[in-house]
Each structure stands twice: as structure tokens, then as C-alpha cells.
Amino acid sequence: MVQSSRRPRAHPRAAARAAACTAAAVLLAAPAVAGWPSPAVAAGAPGPPYAAVLSVPAADEPADPAAAKEQIEKNWTAFFDPKTPTDEKAALLQHGDLLKVLLDGFSAGAEAAKASVEVTDVVFTSPTGAEVTYDLKVGDDTVVPGSKGTVVFEDGVWKVSLKTLCSLVELSGAEAPPLVC
Signal sequence span per UniProt (predicted)? Predict the structure, then answer.
């Protein structure tokens, strides 16, 4: 009798059963990854070594959203503060090193010297981006309430986006917006 070198084919139900067991194992372990005890842990059996994981950061925000929000508010306020030197403003603006002349132009004028902002909300759109809602003030008067702008995380710093700067240039009624806009 000649033996075949072929391996016997697995029964189709055996493959399906193996896949179902694998899926069940993943589903039972998933709550532990999210910080919830798995059914085995709840019943008193020792849990997997990764059961200590408490939370997984959302994909639409940075790893530490509270710290990021704090830096965004601080940087946004400093960028719009007329007392902030142009070089510091450039460091708080996306591609700001290329736009120092434009920033100097924004700082000119009596109204600019009294301008300020108050950040009212920050909503993350990704780990490296957020939408900022703010009130634009001149002196004690809120002249543009509920304004919207965006920030980007660039070179380890949350910066006012170029898109926001261009929107403000357009709002100012500039006859010749900068080429970057």
C-alpha cells in the first residue's frame, strides 16, 4: 500500500469552530483591555496580565487632552495678546517663521493694541488638531463673539492654524491678502 504525502484536509466545520473559539477568546478579553473585568476575572479566576489597563485614549484627541487644552488656551491667548513680541507670536503660528512681516502688520494700529481673546471652548478633531471657539474683544467690548478657529500640533507646540489667520485677514477686509492665504 502506498501512503500519500498529502495531509488530510480538515473538516470545514473544524475550521469554523476554531475561528469561533478565537473570536470568543478575543471578545472575553476585550473588556479587560478597556478596563472592565472579564467574565473570568469577575468569577474569581486570575485575569490576563493586561487587565490593569484602565483606558484607551480616543482616536480623536491627544493622549493627555487636559494638558493639551491648557496649552491651547494659553498659546491662543498669547498669540492674540498685543504685548506678545512678534517672534513669540511666530512661534505660536503654524509656519509662523515665514509670516513675521504679516504678524508685524497685525500688531499695528490703535485697535490692535486693545485686542484680546477669551477662549470659550476647545474640541479636538484629531490627536493633532482642534477647533477653538473664542470671543474677540477690543478693550472690554466683545466685538466678535463665538468666533471659530483651528489649532494644529506642530513641532511639539499647539499653534494657531494658518487657516485661522487667513480667515482673520479676510474678515479685516484686507485688499490684498497674503499669498499664503
Answer: 1-34
Domain 65-172 is found in CATH 3.10.450.50: yes
Residue from 96, 99, 100, 92 nearest 74 by CA = 92
Contact 151, 130 (CB under 8 A): yes
Q: Give backbone dihedrals phi and psi of 160, rounded to 5 degrees, phi first.
A: -60, 130
- Asked whether residue 83 carries a pLDDT value surpassing 70, the answer given is yes
φ/ψ region of 136 (left if φ > 0, alpha if ψ in -120 to 50, else beta) reads: beta
**Residue extents of the structural domains in the chain:** 12-56, 65-172
Which set of grid coordinates corresponds to residue 86?
512678534
Using alpha carbons, select from 119, 122, 149 the residue that is nearest to residue 135.
Answer: 119
Cα separation values, 116 from 61, 107, 109, Å? 27, 12, 14
Single pTM value for the model: 0.65
Regarding beta strands 157-160 and 129-138, do their DSSP bridges make them parallel or antiparallel, or are they unpaired? unpaired
Average pLDDT score over residue span 36-57: 43
Judged by DSSP in three states, 5 sits in coil
DSSP structure class, residue 57: -
Q: Which pLDDT belongs to residue 176?
A: 66
* Residue 75: predicted pLDDT: 98
